Amino acid sequence: MRFSTLIKYPADWMTGANADNSVVLTSRIRLARNLRDEPFPGWATREQRAATLEELRPAVEGLAPMKDGFSQTLSDLSSVQKQVLVERHLISREHAARGDGSAAVIERRQMYSLMLNEEDHLRMQAIRPGLELREAYEGLSALDDELAQALPYAFDPKLGYLTTCPTNLGTGLRASAMLHLPGLVLSDQIGQVLQAVNKIGLAVRGIYGEGTESLGNLYQISNQSTLGESEDTIIRRLERVISQVAEHERNAREKLLEDDPDMVADKIGRAYGVLRHAWVIDSKEALNHVSLLRLGSDLGFFTNDTMRLADALLMDIQPAHLQLHSGRKLSPEERDAIRAEIIRSRLHSLPPPDIRPTTRNGDNPNTPETSGDA
C-alpha cells in the first residue's frame, strides 16, 4: 500500500464510527517486545539494527491483518510523511526521529500499527473508538501470540518481558484513553480530577503523550506500572477510572448548561463564528474552538453529524497534514491561512448553533410570553 492510499481516508477510530465517543475519543493498547540475545535499538550499531529489522519485518508483514497494509522503512519517508503518522498516532515522535534500521507496518484501516526498532525492537499498538480497551487488547494480544511463535522474545520468568526502559518491564503493556473534557475545564474542576487520577498511580498526558501539552481540552490517561500486575488487572483499573472521569465530565456539562446556559451558548457561538469566518488561525486556537464545536454537538446545539466533522478537523488541521495537503513545505503564517481556509470550507454548510430557549431551559419558543396581568 502506498502512503497516499493509507492516509486518503480517516480510520474509523478517528471519526467515532459506531461508537460513543462524546467523552472518550479513543482507546489504545501498546505492547513492547524485544528479541532475545539482540542489543536494544539504542545500544545497537547500524548493522545490528539492520539485521534485527530483517528478522522482524517479514514476521510482522506476514500477520493476517497486515495483508495489503502499509510497510515502509523510516529512511524512505520524508519528514512531513513521518510527522503525519505521528499526528495520526500511528508512530511515536521518538520513532519518527529514527531512520536507518527502523520501519513502520500499519494495517490498512489503521487499527493496528507496529513500530520496528523504536525504543524497543517491537512496539505494537491497537486503537479503537470510544472506551474499548478490552477489545483493543484482545485483538492485539492475538497478534502478539502469533508473533511469539515466529520470533524469540526476550522474556525472564521472574521479570516478564524485558524492555529498554525498566518502567515497561513485566507485561510491557501501556493502556491509554484519549478523553475530551471541556466541561471539567470550563467548570474549573479539571485540576482536582487529574490530581486524583495521578494519586492512584495513573499518568495524565497531553494529546501526543509524554512531554506534550493538552490542546483542545484533550487528555490522555494511561497506566504507569507494568511490573507485578496482570494485563487484566491493568485494564480493569483503567476502565474503572476512565468511566468515572467520563461520568464527572458528563455531569459537569449538564451542570454548566443548567447553571450558566448563557456562558455555554456564548462560548459555543463565538467558537462557531471564529471558525466560520477566520482567515488566519493558529493550531492551538483552532483546536480549542473545534473542541467547543464538539461540545456543542453533544449538547444539541448542532446536528448529530457535527461531531464527526469536528473529529475529522482535529486531525486534518495539524501542521504536517496541512503541508501534505498543500504538497509543499509551509511557513507558520502560510499554515495558519490554509488552516483557516480548510475550516471555512468544511463548515460552509453547517448552520449556526441552535440556541433557542428549548436548548437551555425547556421552554417552548413558540409559546407567547404572558405576564401575570393577562
From TrEMBL:
GO cellular component terms attached to this protein's record: extracellular space
Enzyme type, top EC level: transferase
Reactions this protein catalyses: L-arginyl-[protein] + ATP = N(omega)-phospho-L-arginyl-[protein] + ADP + H(+)
Motif (RDXXRA motif of the pArg binding pocket involved in allosteric regulation): 335-340
SUPFAM superfamilies: Glutamine synthetase/guanido kinase (SSF55931)
Gene Ontology terms for molecular function: ATP binding; creatine kinase activity; protein arginine kinase activity
Region (Disordered) residue spans: 348-374
Binding residue positions for ATP: 26-30, 89, 123, 174-178, 205-210
Residues in coiled coil: none
HAMAP family linked: Prot_Arg_kinase
Family listed: Belongs to the ATP:guanido phosphotransferase family.
The name this protein goes by in its record: Protein-arginine kinase
Organism: Luteolibacter ambystomatis
Gene field: mcsB
